[in-house]
Structures are given as structure tokens and as C-alpha cells.
Amino acid sequence: MYEIGQEEIDAVTAVLRSGQLFRYRGGEGGQADTCEKRLVELCGCKYALVVTSGTAALICALVGLNIGPGDEVIVPAYTWLASAGAVLNVGAIPVLANVDESLTLDPADFERRIGPRTKAVIPVHMGGRPSNMDAIMDVAQRHGLHVVEDACQAIGGSYRGRRLGTIGAAGAFSFNQFKTISCGEGGALLTSDRKIYERALYCHDMGCTFRNHAGTLTETPFLGNTFRMNELQCAMLRVQLDRLDGILARLRERNGWFRDAVRAEQSPLVLAPSADAAGDCGNNVTFIFDNAGTRAAVGERAKAIEPSCYLSSPIDSGLHVYTNWTVLLNQQGGFCPAMNPFLRAENRECRTRITADTCPETLDILARTGCIGVGINWTREQCATIAGALCRAAREVVGG
Ligand SMILES: Cc1ncc(COP(=O)(O)O)c(C=O)c1O
């Protein structure tokens, strides 16, 4: 979350005063409905459903597509654990594929990892970076696979003019504390497919056969979960949605200043490739190095030159790196054996084994990558100072 102010306080206070905290039974046409309308307008899709988390949005998307036991879903080896966790939550098996130097799913490796049980793929737009959607959609279409975009870290970003989350059959956003906009915890499912939307409605609201809108649904109901957002969260989210394009504009401007400053300096730094630089959310300036040692040495030297220069590496990002997903490596996919997809009879023909050696190329790329997290309030001078320190460090460590 980059910004929060009086507008959020006023919006939440108004809901508290109204006493209508529930989105249904009197809350119709309120904050949750308004957020969904705004998301549809903003992203250019037919339906949006706000839910309690990005994980819940991914689960609703997978349930919407009828993915479950017996199915494999390809997931990048660099993402938050929840991308793979959502697959297990619906009883299916995540199969990992490498990312490329853009830090998003490598389309060629995605294609190599497709097996007879593969039903879907989840490209993840990591850190606001768009995945190579043309290539991913092409592979998916040729193999008859569904595409669920995990845009939890990339709300507002785009790929070739289309908002992330609207290119595949469904997309997922997260509004937890660490995302571009937030309401504490929350998420949203996007889709233009009526069937996915209706099934997601059931999934997020215990089947919702008892709601006013149930009569308008044509899909067969089934028992779901309770993933409903409340009006307090949505009051805050509504204000945050109004802030989104302004936040992205400021991040992208500062990201541009930073890259300009690097270009002006003559240094051996190499920007990581992007599937669509214009659609990147701008949260990070990302560099790729020859090896992990050089990346670490440049980072250390840059910090010594300028303490506000912090070059982080995705290899150090804990549960975003598959080798730290111990519950998956240990096949602890459910609370008891019968509910553990790794052990279920339906998944016997799925590829259930994930080891530290499953995606070595990803580990190599993550370790060679360094990121500067862009400050939303940075001045042009600050960008030049931090970029200058990084360039100088790179010249000293690498030469040139
Ligand atoms: C890439 C990615 N996918 C999924 C999620 C899950 O979102 P949430 O924490 O809202 O469940 C996150 C959140 O951190 C994420 O970063």
C-alpha cells in the first residue's frame, strides 16, 4: 500500500455509522457492488467479484473452470506460495515451470512441462511485471489449456494495452497490506465468462442459493466457501481504487527518472528484459547480472556509497521462491491424508513430486537479479543519487 488518507477514514466511518456492514441483506448497491462496478470499468472485463483475499480469488477462478482432483496446473517457480496453494486447495496438483529473466513464466518452459493431465496455467505478473501473454496464450490455446492470470501483485498494469487479469479466462487481484492498493486483506476475481462468474459466486458465498440474485443464475449450485468481503473493507477499497491510476503514474514516472539516470551514467548495469515495459506497474527497477556474486558485491558497495540505495534480490524473498515451499516439498497438501491432493487416488497419474532441483534455471536467474524498489515520493534528485551510487558500484565491481 502506497497511500492512505482522510478519504479512507471518512469512507469507513460512514459505513460504520450506517450500521450496514454486510454486502447482502440490505447492502445491495453499496460499497462491494460499487467496487465491482469500478473494477469492471477500470479493467475492461464483464464481471468482477470482490472476495476476502487473492488466494480466494484464485480458488474461485479454478473452481469456476471446474479444475479439481485429477488435474495439473502449471505455476511459475517464482511466485507467492498461494499461487500453487490455490491449486492444492481445489484438489489439483501444481506443476512448476521456470521463469525467464523477466521474472515471469518462461513460455518455452511452460510448454515443455505440459503433460497429459495438465488443464491450466497460472502466469503470475510478479512485482507488477507483465508476463509474456501473447506467447503464453498461444501455447495454452495450442494445448487446450485454461489461463488464470495471477495479477495479485500487478493491479492496473497492462500487456499490449490490455489490463492484466483480463487476458486469460480469469484473473485474480490481492488487496492485502503489501499490494499497490489495499484494504487490509481482500481480493477480486475478474472474468468475462458468465459461467466462471456464476460458479465463483457460489464458491465465495456458501452456494448462495438463499440470496436474492440466486434466481438469476443458471449454473447448477454447489456448496462453496465464505469468501465474502464486507462493506468496511470495500469502503476503503473504493477510495483506494480511485487512487490507483495516480499511484501508478507516480511510480512509473519515478521508475523512468531512475532508468534515465542509469542511462546517463555509462555503467555496466543491464536492465532485465520486460514482456511489455509500457505496461509494467513501475514498482521496481530490475537489473540482471552475470552471476550472483557480482550482484551481491554491487549491492553491498552501492549501500556503502549511498545508504538509501538498497538492491534486493528475489532469491532472498522467502516464500516467493519454490525451494522454501516446504509444505509442497514435503507433500503436506491437506489437513488429513484423504484431503491431501498429493495422496489422493484421483491424482495418481499426476506429477506430484516437487524437489529443490525442479527449476534450477529459476534459482540461477533469481540469484543474478537485483531490484530497486521505487519510492513513490522520490524526487528526480533522489533517483539520480541512488542510481548514481548503483552505477558507481557497478563500475567499481565489474569495471567499465
Ligand atoms: C503473486 C501472488 N499471488 C497470490 C497472492 C495471494 O494473495 P492474498 O495474500 O491476498 O491471499 C499473493 C499475495 O501476497 C501474491 O503476491
Give your account of this protein's structure:
This protein has 400 residues and is an alpha/beta fold. The chain has a domain at 6-241: Aspartate Aminotransferase, domain 2 (3-Layer(aba) Sandwich), CATH 3.40.640.10. The chain is built from twelve helices and twelve strands. The protein has helices at residues 6-18, 31-43, 54-64, 81-89, 107-112, 133-143, 194-204, 231-265, 292-305, 326-329, 360-368, 380-398, and strands at 47-51, 72-76, 93-97, 118-121, 146-150, 158-159, 162-163, 170-174, 187-191, 284-288, 311-312, 369-373. The chain has a seven-stranded mixed sheet with strand order 1-9-8-5-4-2-3, with helices on both faces. β6 (158-159) and β7 form a beta hairpin. α3 packs across α7 (194-204). The relative contact order is 0.16. Pyridoxal-5'-phosphate is lined by residues 53-55, 79-80, 82-83, 124, 150, 152-153, 174, 176, 187.
| CATH level 1 name of one domain | Alpha Beta
* Count of helix runs: 12
Supply the CATH superfamily name of one domain: Type I PLP-dependent aspartate aminotransferase-like (Major domain)
- In sequence order, what are the helices and strands, one letter per element? HHEHEHEHEHEEEEEHHEHEHHEH
Instruction: Please summarize the sheet with the most strands.
Output: 7 strands, mixed
* CATH architecture label of one domain: 3-Layer(aba) Sandwich
Mean pLDDT: 97
Class from secondary-structure proportions: alpha/beta
Strand content: 5-15%
Cα(first) to Cα(last) distance is 38 Å
CATH topology of one domain, which one? Answer: Aspartate Aminotransferase, domain 2
Bound molecules: pyridoxal-5'-phosphate
The count of strands amounts to 12
- The side-by-side strand order for the widest beta sheet comes to 1-9-8-5-4-2-3
Low-confidence stretches: none
Q: Label the overall shape.
A: globular
Percent range of helical residues: 25-40%
Rg:
22 Å
